Amino acid sequence: MSMNRKAIAFGDIHGCPRAAESAVRLTQELGATGIFLGDYVDRGPDNMGVLDVLIRARAAQPDWVFLRGNHDQMLLDLIDGRDHPDGFDERTREEAYADWQAAPESFRAEVVRFLTGTKHYHETEHHIFVHAPLMHDGLALHEKAPYDLVWNYDLEPAWQGKLFVHGHLPIREAEITPARINVNTSCGYNGILTGVFLDLGSGATLGICTIAEQGEVLSAPEH
């Protein structure tokens, strides 16, 4: 798949559709490829609203990348009648499922198609994009279990491969290190949505954009 040289990778959206709309619009304005790192549902006010925004974005921009987060996986598990990991309170685990059940049948089918079409990781020349952080467990990226790519919380032993961009671990502002970039800035629970603007050709980090849960663009790279 051919990809634009510039891309913005956004962290966890967690049920905030206005933030999702602004992320899509900003990416389009910058002429970049959108990369969404998963956890589209739970915590925020409108799970199906976020999925509607992203479903429409993927239809309009088929080269954009949509990864799967653990909350998205839990929704799929509930839809399919599978068990999901213990340790999450029942409300958080099932609120997106209840919203999905209440949606029109045609939209429910679109949601399933969208979520089952999400990827566990995306790799480019200089970057790996993944929901959960990578660690050095002796396995190559393509050998890692899907469970680890959406659920892992451990950073040690430190990953030895390409710079990876991830979400999953909640922080208050973007964390950029030589080994990894974390852009899960707690959107959906009184945080913001963050995207990192990247040059995929050179590997350079070009800037950070931040968006309030209600959709206001707080900061953005130059066009």
Any overview of this molecule?
The protein has helices at 17-29, 47-60, 70-80, 90-102, 105-116, 146-151; strands at 6-10, 33-36, 65-66, 121-123, 127-130, 163-166, 175-176, 180-182, 192-199, 205-212, 217-219. The protein starts with 5 loop residues before the first strand and ends with a strand. The chain has 223 residues and is an alpha/beta fold. It has a 6-stranded mixed beta sheet, with helices on one face. It has a single domain (6-219), classed as Metallo-dependent phosphatases (Purple Acid Phosphatase, chain A, domain 2, 4-Layer Sandwich).
Please sum up the structure shown.
The chain is α/β, with parallel strands linked by helices and 223 residues long. It is 31% helix and 21% strand.
Largest sheet, order of strands side by side? 3-2-1-9-10-11
CATH architecture: 4-Layer Sandwich
CATH third-tier fold name: Purple Acid Phosphatase, chain A, domain 2
| Tally of strands | 11
The low-pLDDT segments are: none
Q: What is the radius of gyration? A: 16 Å
Number of domains: 1
Provide mean pLDDT, rounded: 92
Shape: globular
Features:
Purple Acid Phosphatase, chain A, domain 2; alpha/beta; 6 helices; six-stranded mixed beta sheet; 31% helix; 223 residues
Describe the secondary structure blueprint for this structure.
Elements lengths: L5 E5 L6 H13 L3 E4 L10 H14 L4 E2 L3 H11 L9 H13 L2 H12 L4 E3 L3 E4 L15 H6 L11 E4 L8 E2 L3 E3 L9 E8 L5 E8 L4 E3 L4
Parallel strand pairs: 1-2, 2-3, 5-6, 6-8
Antiparallel strand pairs: 1-9, 4-5, 7-8, 9-10, 10-11
Helix pairs in contact: 1-2, 2-5, 3-4
